[in-house]
Here is the input.
Amino acid sequence: MTRVLVVEDEPDIRLLITVNLESAGFDVLEAASGEEGLDLVAAADMLLLDIRLPGIDGFEVMERLGRPFPLPVIAMSAHSSEAARDQALALGCAGWLQKPFSPRGLVALLEDLRS
Amino acid sequence: MGVRALGMDGAAVLPERDNKVPENSVRSRDLEAEVARLTRRLANVERLAHVGSWLWDLTTNEVVWSDELRQLFGTDPEVHDETFETFQSLIHPDDRETITTIVRRALKTASSYTIEHRLVRPNGAIRWVQARGDVEVDEDGMVVVMHGISVDITERRNLDLELRRFVSDAAHELRTPVTTVTYAIGMLASDDLPDDQRKVVTAALARNGERLKRLTETLLDLSTIEADASTALVEQVDLADVVERAIESLPLHATQRVAIDVGIPAGLRVQAAADDLERVFVNLVANAIQHGGSQLSVIATTADDDRVVVEVRDDGPGVDPEVAENLFVPFARGRRAGLGGSGLGLSISRRLLERFGGSIDHQPEDDGASFVVRLEPAS
Here is the structure.
């Protein structure tokens, strides 16, 4: 089963994403901060990464992952900044999700990347 | 009393006898006094309006600055040797080219201009100014005089920036629960969501709906404080009463979980708007409980300067050093705040207290969190 690591500091968003992905047949690992995420990343097949995080932010997490990324990374952000999106994609992200996004859209994107 | 009349050309015709009296010296003295009076008046107007003015005579290349302009540019008020180059040299390097282009265009096309730019005072301070300029032309349409004014708009620029940042932070703050709500609705719309998961999603939806409600209420509150800045009703209030009311107004399920030790001398009175002061203590006690304190204390003492010092302390995990310096900045929330806080409690508390001469600060401690409120004693 594909295991997705969700790095998101907002507990309810993390909870809903987890419930959604599990019911769509994914295995989910959760992290509330970039630091926690980096500790778990070796056990995951895909990384769903919020950009705005307390402590080290999403870009810093990507920096520390090394390049090329060891797994597909999908960035999520509530900031509608094109510059941030372009930066994320230039760093090698496999996807960019602008919040708010739909549960169906997220599953579709992950299934697309899994195949 | 001289009889005044208008000649054919509309100019005043002075009574004959005035011309015969050899009073030229007296008249020029009157004129000098009048010029001095008008100069003083102009200087006063400039000083009160914080407007500096200048005039550039292109026929002689002479530049005249007003005292207020020297004040604005931070140059020596005693030295009057300004040129266009002096002016240019004090413009912020990043704005210099724009200004030179605009002034050149105004000279070439005999037109006026308005621009906002930065200047760097000789002491290094950077100020924002709004500059307006205009020209006077001779009968051939050649510009002979250019004159202008500059107004210090630094404060307004800073307020604009602060406001923009606040609005952007508030939007982001709203977006988080909106994202959750949208996501939850998307999940509930699916027919194949099992019942147990449906319950989890509905609960998250309810929490975030509540959070949106609280956040919008707090934002509205904040706008009222700003609007009512001068209308706080300041009276002599009994501090122990206010703190007791604050604690009682908190939900029981919150206050029952903790022990609150209140140490306020009986009859200690302070100058405050009672409702606002109560709100400050509601914020502080709720914060302490929310951030994991189980043992709280609210202790009041009188300092050497007679001000009343109230310390609200808890034994929770303390203030995250990462956010300590921004604690009173709207939305700069600690990461342990979770869902409950609006991110505005402390900034609102500070604003409320400042309205009646109070203050609030965070006091770094090795363990737990400590906030110190200082109040004016009752007179």
